[in-house]
Amino acid sequence: MRIETICTGDELLTGLTSDTNSRFFQEALLDRTGLTVRRGVVVGDDRADIIEALQQAVSRADVVLVSGGLGPTSDDLTAECAAAAAGVPLVQSDTALRHIEERFKARGIVLSENNRRQAQVPQGAEVVLNQEGSAPMFIQRFPAGALSTPLGMNGGCLVFFVPGVPREYRHLVGLHVVPRIAALKGSPEVRKLALLKTTGLPESHLDERVAPLAVKYPKVLFGFRTHPPENHLKLLATGATEAETSALLEQVVNEARAVLGPTCFGRDAETLPGVVLARLEARKEFLALAESCTGGMIAEQLTASPGASKSFYGGAATYLDEAKTQWLGVPEGLIAQFGAVSSECAEAMAKNVREHTGVQWSLSTTGWAGPSGGDAENPVGTVYIGIAGPDGVKVVKHRFHGDRERVRSFASTTALDLLRKRLEGESS
Amino acid sequence: MRIETICTGDELLTGLTSDTNSRFFQEALLDRTGLTVRRGVVVGDDRADIIEALQQAVSRADVVLVSGGLGPTSDDLTAECAAAAAGVPLVQSDTALRHIEERFKARGIVLSENNRRQAQVPQGAEVVLNQEGSAPMFIQRFPAGALSTPLGMNGGCLVFFVPGVPREYRHLVGLHVVPRIAALKGSPEVRKLALLKTTGLPESHLDERVAPLAVKYPKVLFGFRTHPPENHLKLLATGATEAETSALLEQVVNEARAVLGPTCFGRDAETLPGVVLARLEARKEFLALAESCTGGMIAEQLTASPGASKSFYGGAATYLDEAKTQWLGVPEGLIAQFGAVSSECAEAMAKNVREHTGVQWSLSTTGWAGPSGGDAENPVGTVYIGIAGPDGVKVVKHRFHGDRERVRSFASTTALDLLRKRLEGESS
């Protein structure tokens, strides 16, 4: 089955934004069906370009995924180009219009004429409602034309049109597009995927550690995905039956976890903040934070998990030195003597926030996130991470590389991982 | 001048890696020449696909930038495909071979037969040495063929072939490709881009508000881009000279800002947190936060800006009710009577954090981010946002839609925007 993608949008061709959607589709497609995309095309908001790209794609491919250009504005041209490429008129979808009307009504927003345009689809297209936005998804079958050389699939090409807004794209592609392609493929082979998530281990080391397992299990595909500060090991098992595939996958997961040791913090949908919260909840313990250079990032990551209130007390983003003194009781003299970016300050922050709140655990961060600041002893990228618990306070000094965002993100993950290892009884 | 790009590499189609090179080229091209790419194609390491993509691109475009597939391994097919597409043989470039030999000698590495392959280029191609790697860049002119309809440029298409390794790509594209395109262009037409950023205005309303301007200024391209919770208006002006284009763009920017009013918070690289911090800094005032449902997100967004310490005091992510009481002095009785998700609680949080820290401004958030929680009066998505300043405290109740992340993100942006409008003297 030959699959192609077309992304539309001037902003994808002028350096304003990158196409992150296609990677989501590629991964989901590979995981679910073992298929890969053969060609990806990006075109601007230009009628002739969109129509030409569409006609060429349907002449080559069995399935095409088109994204973007379904919004309410005048530069959203995809539906009319789809109709033009197929030689059919645009017609109003009553279901889509009703969906849009209800959506706007629920939000108390007045429906504009432009929003009604979003209910126009090419004649003959199947409409799939979009629970995450107003633009509907639609599916259109292009027959094998005079110029076309499709590889099969009833002699035509199936084209999925989805909005380009990432949240809507992911929702519709995950829920409708990939499952339909999987059904079209119709292979009896069962595939199962596991994702093992690590942090603190470079991708090349991860690869080396599991290399012997990849040789031992040829029916499992080993892949690596880097999502700094995390590296993920992707295991895709293939088998004849559900039971056989599950058994094979679990065996490899167990052996991989054994060689990865404590660097592996979770599996599949587990997140590092989620794992930390679950460990705390199981112990009926609470965490408080005192963040300086991470400025609320650790708190934000923890509270992204529903139910964080079962083990997260709260956090102080004490950005100014005055805040460290006033909220956390870090002595002015300590900051004057050692500086705010120091082991002493990180220790006082962690110790004091734990004592003031009466919780079992606390984490603190203080460092130079850059681009300015730092000195010879503590250059930009230096972060002191403090952890306080029932058995005392400890501070670890790190040096992270990269820009401000990267330093803050690595510091947040490293702090959470420090607590995770402590809770799991590992010495870090 | 019509410009297209082709990126080759299986890894770009299987979710393993994203194409970040194209964005670099697009930005450099726009900045330097005002030109934009018309189409971007990604193909795998497959001879037929590469040749077809190349032939189609040279039949449409004046300039094509091809990247990837110039390495030493067997799946590096670009040079042979270029030769096949042009109908010429591959020949050895002595300059390229000498460069490779010297490079390996300097590093004390033995030259393999595969590395010698990297000196093979299509006959007639111009070789440009690559100071960042062993694969040379080459430039090949494709004549206007029977099927081609090029727009000009001496009736043919100029194709640049560069390695896909980001460091090498950026070096060669910045040093050779973009300057050559700028020289080719030699046209007096200048393009300039402005981005106006809004929040609190649906995309369709944004479009309607500026529609009369788009009619009035046909030499300015109006585009829209949604980055929830923000919507951006993109203005691309075209003119004969630098001065004329700048004047036109500034005129349209001013008129657009006038019709957008206070919903427009910034321009180009400005961010909402950055604008808030700048407004505070100009007034020599400070902000403190008391976040519940946003759990540190506002603090995180503010501290993502370097120099946040000039106007951000710090924030308390008071997630538990105990934290609200203990850190912010919100009376237990108030929470018992009205609940933590209430106007009263938001007011007390904002008022108290301002008083305790002694700063001029404070923001508070408390609400149900979901998926669980809420009641008939305050369903999931309800967020109370408090703002306290020299002229008192005010609380606004909002109802946001979507998942937990979306509610938190909209609440954070709405809170920051409330302060921005207050600082800019607007009543919200």
What do you see in this structure?
Two copies of one chain form a homodimer. Chain A is α/β, with parallel strands linked by helices and 428 residues long. Chain A has three domains: 3-185, 3-Layer(aba) Sandwich (Molybdenum Cofactor Biosythetic Enzyme, Chain A), CATH 3.40.980; 190-267, Alpha-Beta Plaits; 272-423, Maf protein (Alpha-Beta Complex). Chain A contains 14 helices and 17 strands. In chain A, strands 2-1-3-8-7-6 form a six-stranded mixed β-sheet, with helices on both faces. A five-stranded mixed β-sheet of chain A has the order 14-13-15-16-17, sandwiched between helices. In chain A, strand 6 and strand 7 form a beta hairpin. Chain A is globular and about 80 Å long. The model of chain A is unreliable at 146-153 (pLDDT under 50). At the A-B interface, helix 1, strand 2, helix 2, strand 13 and helix 10 of A face helix 1, strand 2, helix 2, helix 7 and strand 10 of B.
List keywords for this structure.
homodimer; 428 residues; alpha/beta; Molybdenum Cofactor Biosythetic Enzyme, Chain A; Alpha-Beta Plaits; Maf protein; 6-stranded mixed sheet; 5-stranded mixed sheet; 14 helices; 25% strand
Mind sketching the topology for me?
2 copies of one chain form a homodimer.
Chain A: E1 3-8, H1 21-33, E2 37-43, H2 47-60, E3 63-67, H3 78-86, E4 90-92, H4 94-107, H5 113-117, E5 120-122, E6 126-128, E7 137-143, E8 156-162, H6 166-185, E9 190-199, H7 203-216, E10 220-227, E11 230-239, H8 242-260, E12 264-267, H9 272-282, E13 287-291, H10 297-303, E14 312-317, H11 321-328, H12 332-338, H13 343-357, E15 361-367, E16 382-389, E17 392-399, H14 404-423
